[in-house]
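Work Package 3 (structural annotation) set out to generate three-dimensional models for the target panel prioritized at the project kickoff. During this period the team completed the workflow that converts sequence records into discrete structure tokens, so that structures can be stored uniformly alongside our sequence database. As a representative example, we reproduce one entry of 352 residues exactly as it appears in the project archive.
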Amino acid sequence: MPLILGIESSCDESAAALVEGPSVVRSSVIATQHDLHARYAGVVPEIASRAHAERVLPVIEEALREAGATLGDLDAIAVGHTPGLIGSLLVGVSTAKALSWGLGIPLIGVHHLLAHLHAPTLDDEPISFPAISLIASGGHTALYRQTEPLSATLLGSTIDDAVGEAFDKAATMLEAGYPGGPAIEALAETGDPEAFDLPIPRSRDNPLDFSFAGLKTALLYAARGHPRGRGREARFPRDVSDLSDSTRSDLAASFQKSAVAALVRGVRRAVDSEDVRSLCGGGGVLANAPLRRQLALLANERNLLLRIPPMRYCVDNAAMIAGLAALRLEAGLTDDLDLQATPRHPIPPPVG
């Protein structure tokens, strides 16, 4: 099996990993930037790219140490080159090109979202296709149909915020902390999900599309009341600081219930409209325990194989990059040194 070094720098995680073939993870190292972005309650692109430049070589060195390998043992260099923040992507892509050129080994560009959908196979078995696959993260929320691991057919996506972004903004509203996903989940643990009747958002055009803007607005009004006055004179009748801890927990639990219900409703519609064997998922929001439970229930009801990553592979990581790169290498799909970092690029559909 080829030994591949994967590099991931698409957003705010600097990561490196060594993987044998598509699934045997020898090492996986991640340097988070949560402390750098917490004061802004979101990722600041310039701060992220500077942090990647500082951390990319140390995480590669640590990944080599953990795997007990040297640069000379590598068979290829893989890098997530799209989609993502352009400044962050450039750090990873430039590093990968330099290593590929210097070592004289293949360079393999990997689509970040396809890598998330490959994550369930890390340290595990291949996925049984065809599958309905859910991406749920801070920057992306979409449903796909997959018949093989190197392509996917888009069925629906968010028309406004990604679900992870909605969690971040909900956490800001409730002063719960950052990053928003785990902060809301922690706050919701002691809350009553039935305390507030928040809407389960949906798109009117495509039943497999998602929308979270209305849910955010409903949470804001539930927390602070409806604004009084017009234009710049409008004022909310209360602040979040006026709420009791139990009310904040109830709001978090109610928001989480609606956000998860929206995702599961879309997945249910997809699996009921397609003839598939597996239900798959990837992305940071897949670490949410209520979502994992609901997907497990749905898969059991529909007699589908559930393939979602263990918690350590839900977040952005380089093992998923290297693992999918092994399949690209096997298919003869390598890249030249003119590989571009591209902030937006759809997952390629199946050929033919």
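The chain has a mean pLDDT of 96.
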